[in-house]
């Protein structure tokens, strides 16, 4: 696995999905309020993606389309994707979508992701660098992690470019030391 | 037949010849540096070039030393110094980029013959030490605390069919590149599978943004430069 | 948790199985919560809890396998409820392992970057965040890099930025009493607030550590 240690990849796989158990499983603790440690075939259970994926590969569960890709969200994206709060639907909207699509056998998710990304990139991310965005404005809260990463990469490239053009200190304190240094005795 | 410097000093022929050679070597170093910077995987170590560059640097250091003691004007000395600085920077950066790639993908490089063979002797020692240190670190802090079938640093569990814990560079990233000659017959590795039978062509001196995997062998053979 | 309308046979409430791997993921989230490049203190407590969950899962897995063997089933091929239960425990261990190793591995990567940014001597505020193994690893890696650089005859920890001018102006931010090594063997007084015209490659390290700042304009 090329991204075994990748933090984002690990976090994406923690997203909860809804599954239906095709086979029974015993000796498994559900939530603490449950009295039994047995999951019957046909039960609807919510699992983290990493578990749902492995069980689906062995035909133990079938996975339902997560709510963040449901009809309501699709309509909103079609209508005005630049304003849709994708982050609250799923912070890793795109990565999660890529992983879930083959598992639920929904071929339309791919198109949805591509179109959402293209439009949001055009509307939101390109404008972000030219317009002045007020701190704390709604802009930040609707971007997914992937979009924020892109934004930050572009930001740092812009900052380097400006520095190169306009001069200024080229050497800086290492970021791991934080902003303030306590004076040593 | 020498050339005349600003002060009217005669520069002997050998210096001029050397100056020509060193320019070519620095250009080669610059190219090797740019390729290494842009490529997602580690490239072949330019052993001969680096030996020559080191010799060059020694010569330049001697020249600067000599000129400053002899009392040459500071402007000329600083020109030689800047030349030296730039070459030193390229050398350091070239080696550093490689070392940092090794740090990032040490297990993968150690296990993959093709990549292992691209390292210099010193880099091989470094990689061995690195992998031993990190492996030991993982074993002592985590792996030894886990149940028996899960203690491998390469496989998630004993039922893993293959090595599945080793990070690798992504070869399907896109890179900016350019060719000096007209190239044909490039098979594109990305895009819909049915398109892959189409062969791509590159015109000389035109910039292209291509999937690295598609041009990997051409970078190795020196036909394509990365930017 | 209401059941979907229209199901007659088994209208069981939706169960949530999200405790497995939860703490492990918390550990990973903690690592990610630091500002870019910053380390949080090594969370020994949470780490130990995840390790002990792995042992717990392993015990449950083994007891399920034993049960199957006692019933005379072929563990390799039988596919009953015990088998799927055992699988769930196995995947949970694998997930916990991934989170634990990622925690250690990514911190180790941050620790290696420290070497490049600050050099082989760590300030106390950073040392406190590392656990014993991490300090050991840092020392070993410093030694490995040092050994390579001495063989290659080049110091790779300087010259991190392309050269513009060979000399730059700096102001000293804190008294630097000892350990000053300049490449031209001069030995100026590095008292706080003093300003100097230093070789770029000499000044780089001090600036990176916050002991000096570059003056421009």
UniProtKB/TrEMBL annotation, chain A:
Major site of localization recorded for this protein: nucleus
Domain DNA replication complex GINS protein PSF3 N-terminal: 5-55
Domain annotation GINS subunit: ranges: 69-164
GO biological process: mitotic DNA replication initiation
Listed name of the protein: DNA replication complex GINS protein PSF3-like
Subcellular location: Nucleus
PANTHER family: DNA REPLICATION COMPLEX GINS PROTEIN PSF3
Family designation: Belongs to the GINS3/PSF3 family.
Any one annotated GO CC term: GINS complex
Name of one Pfam family that matches: Sld5
Source species taxonomy: Eukaryota, Viridiplantae, Streptophyta, Embryophyta, Tracheophyta
Keyword Hydrolase: no
CDD domains: GINS_A_psf3, GINS_B_Psf3
Keyword NAD (UniProt): no
Alphabetically ordered keywords of this record: DNA replication, Nucleus
UniProtKB/TrEMBL annotation, chain B:
UniProt xrefs under Gene3D superfamilies: 1.20.58.1030
GO cellular component, one term: GINS complex
One Gene Ontology term from the biological process aspect of the record: double-strand break repair via break-induced replication
Coiled coil: none
Signal peptide positions (record): none
Locations listed in the record: Nucleus
Keyword Nucleus among UniProt keywords: yes
Residue ranges annotated for the DNA replication complex GINS protein SLD5 C-terminal domain, each copy included: 169-227
Membrane-crossing residue ranges in chain numbering: none
Domain GINS subunit: 72-140
Record keywords: DNA replication, Nucleus
Family named by the database record: Belongs to the GINS4/SLD5 family.
Chain's role: The GINS complex plays an essential role in the initiation of DNA replication.
Record-linked PANTHER family: DNA REPLICATION COMPLEX GINS PROTEIN SLD5 (PTHR21206:SF0), SLD5 PROTEIN (PTHR21206)
UniProt-recorded name of the protein: DNA replication complex GINS protein SLD5
Organism name: Cicer arietinum (Chickpea)
Record gene name: LOC101491330
């Amino acid at each position: 696995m090329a991204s075994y240690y990748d933090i984002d990849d690990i976090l994406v796989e923690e997203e909860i999905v809804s599954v239906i158990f095709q086979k029974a499983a015993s000796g498994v603790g559900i939530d603490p309020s449950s009295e039994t440690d047995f999951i019957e075939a046909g039960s609807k259970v919510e699992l983290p993606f990493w578990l749902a994926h492995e069980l689906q590969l062995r035909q133990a569960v079938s996975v339902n389309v997560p709510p963040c890709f449901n009809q309501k969200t699709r309509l909103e994206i079609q209508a005005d994707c630049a304003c849709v709060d994708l982050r609250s639907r799923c912070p890793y909207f795109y990565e999660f979508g890529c992983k879930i699509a083959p598992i639920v056998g929904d071929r339309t998710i791919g198109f949805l992701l591509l179109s959402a990304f293209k439009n949001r990139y055009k509307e939101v991310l390109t404008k972000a660098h030219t317009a002045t965005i007020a701190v704390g404005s709604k802009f930040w809260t609707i971007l997914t992690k992937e979009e924020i990463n892109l934004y930050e990469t572009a930001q740092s490239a812009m900052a380097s470019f400006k520095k190169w053009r306009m001069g200024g200190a080229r050497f800086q304190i290492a970021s791991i030391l934080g902003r303030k240094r306590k004076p040593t005795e | 037949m020498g050339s005349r410097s600003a002060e009217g000093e005669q520069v002997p022929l050998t210096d001029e010849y050397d100056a020509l050679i060193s320019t070519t070597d620095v250009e080669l170093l610059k190219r090797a540096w740019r390729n290494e910077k842009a490529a997602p995987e580690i490239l072949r170590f330019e052993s001969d070039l680096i030996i020559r560059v080191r010799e060059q640097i020694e010569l330049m250091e001697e020249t600067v030393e000599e000129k400053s003691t002899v009392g040459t004007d500071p402007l000329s000395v600083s020109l030689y110094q800047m030349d030296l600085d730039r070459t030193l920077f390229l050398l350091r950066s070239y080696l550093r980029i490689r070392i940092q790639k090794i740090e990032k993908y040490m297990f993968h490089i150690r296990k993959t013959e093709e990549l292992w063979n691209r390292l210099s002797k010193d880099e091989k020692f470094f990689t061995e030490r690195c992998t031993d240190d990190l492996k030991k670190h993982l074993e002592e802090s985590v792996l030894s605390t886990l149940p028996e079938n899960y203690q491998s640093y390469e496989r998630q569990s004993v039922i893993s069919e293959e090595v599945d814990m080793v990070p690798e560079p992504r070869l399907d990233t896109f890179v900016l590149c350019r060719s000096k000659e007209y190239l044909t017959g490039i098979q594109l590795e990305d895009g819909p599978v049915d398109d892959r039978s189409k062969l791509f062509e590159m015109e000389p001196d035109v910039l292209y943004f291509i999937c690295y995997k598609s041009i990997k062998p051409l970078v190795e053979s020196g036909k394509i430069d990365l930017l | 948790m209401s059941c979907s309308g229209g199901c007659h046979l088994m209208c069981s409430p939706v169960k949530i199985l999200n405790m497995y791997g939860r703490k492990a993921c918390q550990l990973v989230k903690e690592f990610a919560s630091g500002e870019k490049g910053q380390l949080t203190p090594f969370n020994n407590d949470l780490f130990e809890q995840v390790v002990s969950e792995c042992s717990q899962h392993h015990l449950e897995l083994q007891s399920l396998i034993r049960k199957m063997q006692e019933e005379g089933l072929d563990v390799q091929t039988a596919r009953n409820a015990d088998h799927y239960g055992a699988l769930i425990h196995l995947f949970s261990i694998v997930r916990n392992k991934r989170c634990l190793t990622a925690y250690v591995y990514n911190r180790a990567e941050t620790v290696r970057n420290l070497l490049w940014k600050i050099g082989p001597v760590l300030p106390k505020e950073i040392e406190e965040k590392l656990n014993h193994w991490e300090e050991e690893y840092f020392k070993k890696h410093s030694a490995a890099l040092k050994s390579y650089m001495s063989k290659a005859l080049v110091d790779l920890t300087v010259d991190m930025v392309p050269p513009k001018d060979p000399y730059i102006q700096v102001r000293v931010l804190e008294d630097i009493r000892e350990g000053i090594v300049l490449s031209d063997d001069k030995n100026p007084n590095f008292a706080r607030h003093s300003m100097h015209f230093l070789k770029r490659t000499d000044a780089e390290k001090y600036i990176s550590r916050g002991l000096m700042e570059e003056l421009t304009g």
